[in-house]
Design brief:
about 300 residues, alpha/beta, 9-stranded mixed beta sheet, 11 helices, 9 strands, elongated
Length: about 300
């Protein structure tokens, strides 16, 4: 997931040549590099540091001076403005750039990272394009989501055939501190993952907005309504995780015929909410496919 900052005014996605931070002194096999230092990269870096990875084993290429300064302040890692030979020491490279910047960044970086294992968290960009741009088949695509920022993320992973079991274990360790992960066997499934869990937190926040507003309209304070809405999602999610029963059964147990929940579910069914919601997810999946068409080769 890329940073939402606007692109710097430059013909290069990394900006003009300069660097900050100390020179690397980590062993090559321990080095991990990040191309892009936005929120998702910071979440992964924070998890690695908490797990004991030395800060001087982590390198970030980040064109924005403000972002580099924050990375240095938060983690004391190396932060450079543009790629260079220093990347040759990286065993693993994590791509956390915007989809529209990926190709240019890859073409500038490929000469320094041919022996590395590559992990992309860029939405939509297919592994065929990534492998072509980077001139390597050791590519893993990931679709994380924003709860990774607090270690509660859900990430789906797809590996190209050249990625070994040992490589998969490396990727799992890199992402372990961000939450859970699962592997999919067909790359096209990542478009559905993007629609379901990648964009999914926004759907939850959307419903929390609606529940908060409804609670305020019915006489609660906004703070009370917000706490009740968030707490309900936390509790219901925990119950769904702990239960062996499908969500339909859990829902039915709360929905006594003629009761308040039944009135609410009936109203939503009459408005076609479930079908509307499913159409929305299909729209997100379609857009994920479009991103691969638009920015890939």
């Amino acid at each position: 997931m890329a940073s939402s900052r606007p692109a710097p005014i430059s013909s290069s996605p990394f900006g003009p040549s300069s660097q900050s931070g100390g020179q690397p002194n980590a062993a090559a096999h321990d080095q991990i590099a990040f191309i892009g230092g936005g929120n998702m990269a910071s979440a992964i870096i924070g998890g690695l540091v908490k797990k004991g990875v030395p800060a001087n084993h982590i390198l970030v290429i980040e064109p924005w001076a403000e972002a580099r300064a924050k990375l240095l302040a938060d983690f004391a890692i190396q932060a450079h403005e543009m790629p260079g030979p220093v990347l040759a020491q990286a065993r693993t490279v994590v791509w956390a750039v915007k989809p529209q910047m990926f190709k240019d960044a890859a073409l500038q970086t490929r000469f320094h990272t041919k022996t590395a294992l590559h992990l992309s968290v860029a939405a939509g960009i297919r592994s065929d394009s990534i492998a072509k741009w980077l001139d390597t088949e050791r590519v893993v695509r990931a679709m994380p989501n924003t709860p990774a920022l607090i270690g509660k993320g859900m990430t789906a992973l797809f590996a190209r055939p050249a990625v070994s079991d040992a490589d998969r274990q490396v990727i799992e360790k890199v992402l372990a501190a961000t939450g859970e992960s699962l592997w999919v066997g067909v790359e096209e499934q990542l478009d559905a993952v993007t629609a379901l869990s990648g964009s999914g937190p926004a759907y939850v926040f959307y419903l929390i907005e609606a529940m908060t507003q409804a609670g305020a309209d019915m006489g609660l304070s906004r703070d009370q309504a917000h706490r009740l809405a968030v707490g309900t999602f936390v509790g219901a999610s925990a119950l769904a995780r702990a239960s062996n029963e499908p969500p339909e059964i859990l829902r039915q147990r709360v929905t006594s015929k003629g009761g308040t929940t039944h009135a609410a579910i009936t109203s939503m069914d009459q408005d076609g909410l479930k079908n509307t919601f499913m159409r929305a997810l299909h729209a997100a999946k379609h857009r994920a496919r479009e991103l691969g068409d638009e920015f890939g080769d």
